[in-house]
Structure formats: structure tokens, C-alpha cells
Amino acid sequence: MGNKRTLRTCEIYFIGNAGVLISADDTSVLIDGLYSSRGGEFPVSPIPGDVLNELYSRRGPLPEPDYLVFSHPHYDHLSEKLLDSYLDTHPSGSVYLPEGTSSAYVRSLYNMKQRGNTYEIITGKERQYRPGKDLEISFYKTRHLGKNFKQTLHYCILITISSCRLLFTADVDFFSESLSQFSQVPLNAAFVNPFLYHNEEGQKILRNTLQAEHTYIYHVPFEENDKYHIRHMINKDLYRYRKTTPAVLLCTPRQNEKLTLKEGEQTYDVLYRKSQQ
């Protein structure tokens, strides 16, 4: 009886595109969840109106985010307009976003300064933060997929929330990035885009390097916006790799997944491993 451990749960809510809201022990983090679908070659589904209303109004099943985190300043991961309007009514949220240069980005940064918002501009190869007792956020600079985006400041994001460790790979270039910096990190879950999961190079990373307990596929358009039939492709891949790298497709607004782990597990501290050596 004395060895009994308490079960803890991390809630995962899918917002749309690469937007994910995670929550555990009264702490919530929104990752790439205020974005735009304004256009571009890749189909991006907009945030459903009712989901956006729940984020803004503090009503409904979605917990209110305490922190806003962004992987890179592309419109389908960060909408400066939505960020501004959100912070107008939620001034207490802390914001973590990579450095950008667009006029909209500069204007949003100015507005945050004027409002007195708490924020961090992410630069450099690696940045780590511990904004709360049970929250660690770490940014690792990685190349963005595609030759056209080689100058984009892009980060993979590692979040530890109440001992649950989650890796968000966003649009990482899995051809040139091995993600070996995470090879010794015990991951409860890894979030990857459909092209990483589809490609054999990405599969090697999932099988041999990350070895996460759970894999989630995001950055997939809703059915009505899927003009390139990405969902069909990824469903075939899910069947093909069901035994070697099983995964869950995040494709429905408010889709809720739960990760449960026992307290006392996953004690490896990725943020301070160097200082403890």
C-alpha cells in the first residue's frame, strides 16, 4: 500500500492545423493555436468559429491557456492579428515566440509592450524556460522543411508539464535534421506532421531516435479543405505502419486525447542535464 503511486493525466485538445492545447494540474499551454488560413500552396483549415469563441470567452470544454507558445512566425502557426485580439482580452497570458521581421510581427510586439504583456522573443540555437513550478519549455532551433524556407527561424518545442514530456516538431526538415538531441529524452508523446510520418526518413527518426510512447500526427487539413487528399494518404500510412510506429491522427476540432502516467516516473530533467553533470 505504501508503494502505491498517484495517476496523473495530461489532457490534449486539438484546435486545428498544428494548434494543440495541453493541460495538466491546472496549467494549460496553447502551442501554435492562434493561426491564420489566409492562403498559400498548402491547404490550411481555419480555426472553427465555435472553438475560437471558446478560447476567447473562457466557456466550454477548453481550458483557458496560461501560456501561448509558437514554433515559428509563419501565418499557419502564428497570426499576429489573432494574438493581438486575444491579448486584448486575456492580458495575463505569457507569450513565447521566435523572432520575426514582418510589419505585422513588429506591430504585435509593439502592442504587447504597450499593454505590458509578459513575453519572450526566442533567438539562438537553444533556449530554455521554467515559467512555473510544474512547467518547462525548451526551444531547439531546427531547419524548416523546404528550400524556400531555409531562412525561417524555426524551433522544435519540448514541453514538460507535470512530468509529462511532449515534443512538438512543427515543420522540421526531417531530411537534414536527425533530431538526435532528443534521442536520450524519454518522451511521452511526439507530434509530427503528415509528411514526416509518410516519408521513410521520418519513419527512421520515429523508430530509432525519438521512440516516443505515443505519436500524434497533426498539421492535417479538415476534410472540407483537403484538396490534396492528405488525409487519405495518412490513413494508408497509419495502416502500413500500425505495427512499427502506431500513431493517432489529430483531425477533428476539440479532439481530446489523454496521457496518463504514474507520479514519480519520468524524472529525467532535460533542461538542467548539463548543469548537473
TrEMBL record:
Protein known as: Metallo-beta-lactamase domain-containing protein
Alphabetical list of InterPro entries matching this protein: Metallo-B-lactamas, RibonucZ/Hydroxyglut_hydro, UPF0173_UPF0282_UlaG_hydrolase
Domain Metallo-beta-lactamase: 58-201
Biological source species: Anaerostipes caccae (strain DSM 14662 / CCUG 47493 / JCM 13470 / NCIMB 13811 / L1-92)
Pfam family, one: Lactamase_B_2
